[in-house]
Amino acid sequence: MTQAKSRVITFGELLLRFSKEDHQRLSQGRYFTSLYGGSEANVAVSLATLGDDVAYVTRLPETPVGHAGAQSLMQLGVDLRATLFGGTRIGTYYLEPAAGMRSSKVIYDRAGSAYSELRPGMIPWREVLKGARVLHVSGITTAITQNAADATFEALDIADEMGVKVSFDINYRKNLWRYGADPRETIGRMLSRCDLMFGDAIEFEWLCQRKQPPFTATDTHFEMQMDEYQEWFEQLHRQYPRCQRWLMGMRNMVASSRHLLTALLYTNVGDKETADGYRLLKGCIHDINGVVDASGVGDAFMAGMLHAIGQPGATEQWILDYALAAAALKNTIVGDFNLATDDEIQSLL
Predict the structure, then answer these.
(1) Is residue 271 over pLDDT 80?
(2) In the predicted model, is pLDDT for residue 6 greater than 80?
(3) pLDDT in tens, 40-68
(4) Phi/psi at 199 (nearest 5 deg)?
(5) For 76-104, how does the pLDDT look when each residue is reduced to its tens digit (9 = 90+)?
(6) 3-state class (DSSP) for residue 257
(7) From CA 342, how far away is CA 345, in angstroms rounded?
(8) Of 284, 294, 278, residue with least CA distance to 324
């Protein structure tokens, strides 16, 4: 399929990631390596790599570190003209990568960051969203401070007013919600105003307060419990009827370097056999033996879906398969950014 360019705006916090080399623990070694990342920035870079017209909106400190972060995205084709500069520090996180049967560990240090000081009225959203097809946000954008949450809902209000579709990633991070807001209520308000969304199975379980059917695949022949998943999505769609596409990613980590990855998409295919035209589609299971870096896989899913939706003649099954292939390839790339190209994703498909 030929690529179709369309304007996508992503909004969130850019972070500086620190980790030790060679799978060392944070308590080992003398040197940290650093990379920039952050959920919504990751989506922007993926879309730019795929040829889409994408802008990233954030607030960065007026320091060399802040400007270096902006440059890291601009050199990959992301438009940062609407990004604000102010404040004194950039949010950071420390990653201890998984190794063997040891899980990864993440420690955030975001208090007092430039982004956390955002307030409504600081970003000229009507100008930023002019000509945009989609505004992409995540649960993280409302988890940092009340002011940042208010600024996010301001963006959602104006997107509604201008007819811009809203893309949403649940991105529930329990240890970020410290300012007193109820995360389930806040994320529910965001979901009620989104048109397409992504979450992993654990986040769906948290959202629905319902135990997930187990995904325990150890090979590509695993049989999914589709009837139970169907009930999940029907429940969510009744609760949030505006959302037209629900993408769920599932991963079974057999070892740190071998993951089984798949996804489901609940979407309106115009099926006359169903009451409302919605049907649950499943992707194949990717057996990824040789995982290099599992950070940002959910963002790769989201970017893959946003890009695929913009392609002429794309079917809902193809959209799902494309997003899943993009996420699978992210596991082979170091850092938060998915630098897989359209040709590589098409080849995997």
Answers:
(1) no
(2) no
(3) 999 999 999 999 999 999 999 999 999 99
(4) -165, 155
(5) 999 999 999 999 999 999 999 888 778 88
(6) coil
(7) 5
(8) 284
Rounded CA gap, 228 and 243, in Å?
A: 20
- Spatial neighbors of 261 by CB under 8 A, at least 6 apart, are 249, 250, 251, 285, 286, 288, 297, 324, 327, 328, 331
**Rounded alpha-carbon distances, angstroms, from residue 13 to 16, 23, 60, 84, 127:** 10, 26, 8, 11, 20
Give the N- to C-terminal CA distance of the chain in Å, as an integer.
12
Amino acid letter at 125?
A: W
**Model confidence over 310-335: pLDDT tens digits?**
899 999 999 999 999 999 999 999 99
Structure tokens at 348: 């995997």
In contact, 168 and 196? CB cutoff 8 Å: yes
pLDDT tens digits along 165-177: 999 999 999 989 9
CA 241 to chain centre: 21
- Give how far Cα 150 sits from Cα of 96, 142, 184, 283, 326, Å: 32, 8, 16, 36, 32
Euclidean distance between CA atoms 19 and 13, whole angstroms: 19
Please name the amino acid found at residue 39.
S
> How far, rounded to the nearest angstrom, does the alpha carbon of residue 332 sit from its chain's CA centroid?
17
Alpha carbon distance 53, 67 (integer Å): 21
Based on the number of CB atoms within 10 Å of its own CB, is 108 exposed (0-12), middle (13-18) or buried (19 or more)? middle
**Cα–Cα distances in Å, from 12 out to 41, 68, 96, 113, 152?**
7, 17, 23, 12, 9
Q: What is the pLDDT of residue 276?
A: 74
Distances, alpha carbon 314 to alpha carbons 51, 138, 166, 309, in Å = 16, 25, 20, 7
pLDDT above 50 for 3: no
SS3 content of the chain, % helix, strand, coil (to 5): 35, 25, 40
Contact 222, 173 (CB under 8 A): no
